[in-house]
Amino acid sequence: MFKILVIDDDTVIRELLRRTLKKQGYEVSVASNGEEGIRQAEELHPALIICDWIMPRLTGIEVCRHIKANPELSTTQFFLLTSLGSVADRVKGLDAGADDFISKPLEMNELYARVRAGLRLYQLSQDLQTQKQLLEAELAEAADYVRSLLPEPLTQPVQIDARFVPSRQLGGDCFDYCWLDPDYLAVYLMDTSGHGLKAALPSISVLNLLRSQTLANVDYHQPSQVLKALNTTFQMTYQNDKYFTIWYGVYHRTTRRLVYASAGHPPAILLSETSEDNLKIQQLKTPGMPVGMFLEANYSDAECDVQQLSNLYVFSDGVYEIHQPNGGILGLDAFVKLLADHYHTAEGSLDTILNIIKGINSNNPFDDDFSLLKVQFQD
What we know:
Blueprint: E1 3-7, H1 11-23, E2 27-31, H2 34-44, E3 48-52, H3 60-68, E4 77-82, H4 87-96, E5 100-103, H5 108-149, E6 158-165, E7 172-181, E8 184-192, H6 197-212, H7 223-233, E9 244-252, E10 257-263, E11 268-275, E12 278-284, E13 302-305, E14 310-315, H8 332-341, H9 350-360, E15 370-377
Parallel strand pairs: 1-2, 1-3, 3-4, 4-5
Antiparallel strand pairs: 6-15, 7-8, 8-9, 9-10, 10-13, 11-12, 11-14, 14-15
């Protein structure tokens, strides 16, 4: 049974609406002023509120604004009962959040029809709200599953830590790091286009394929070979039009050489302390289209020396495409500066970086997955 709340300071109108709507099979409550109406609305969560426009103390417009500002009453239909008929008045009511109007003097057949229409919209909103909650629950489960697949931190002989914060819609981020053999460490991070399960599932497929090392005729010590094989296997024409970016690097601990290749992915950042007051910043990126876009795409390797006490950061674009309260976006350069500013301090942990980003993020949760790896090359 639908709940209807009538708010009107006129006893006659209030009682007339209560009796006639009750005869229609609705559960009707009444309030004689705006303050009492707001209290009852917050307690009863009615499907529909019929409120007189002109009342002492709180007007119907003010009650409407208060109701519509309450997230718990977001699906409640709000009708203004009024003898005002000008376009300007109607516009004022709609701007306040009113869903419909009932004219005075009351015409019962019109009243019943408008109430039925309002309750249909309420039921539709409830159904949509339920579907949204179910979808969010499914995405939360999927995010937990992706999180369960991610590797545990490494401590020796290379220290690796990571932070993964999925967006509300769940993006396509996934990453891994593992020893190919006692001397070679592979590190990679990918980001599939789009959001939701359609983005997460391809990332999981790539992760499992790389972990099992079942790509045919591929030397996993050569990043460009890995990317070429992935591009052949995951063409977007056969993958629901999904493509992904990836950064893939292999570190040789004996020679301290890092070989890497990227496919449309943001550069990894290597910070190296060349002297007590000098920090070298390298952006590690190679040319290459995202995996899955073009079958004929080519990928190339690059390499660099890794000095002692260097830090390597690998991440997705979700860590720096952050909308700020001023309307701007943080951007890659500002994010790199953030990493560099905290290199020498005890506050350079990933938790600190994450908390700083959360503090300047105007959209909570993140619009895209936040994935950040930190590789510390020890003595």
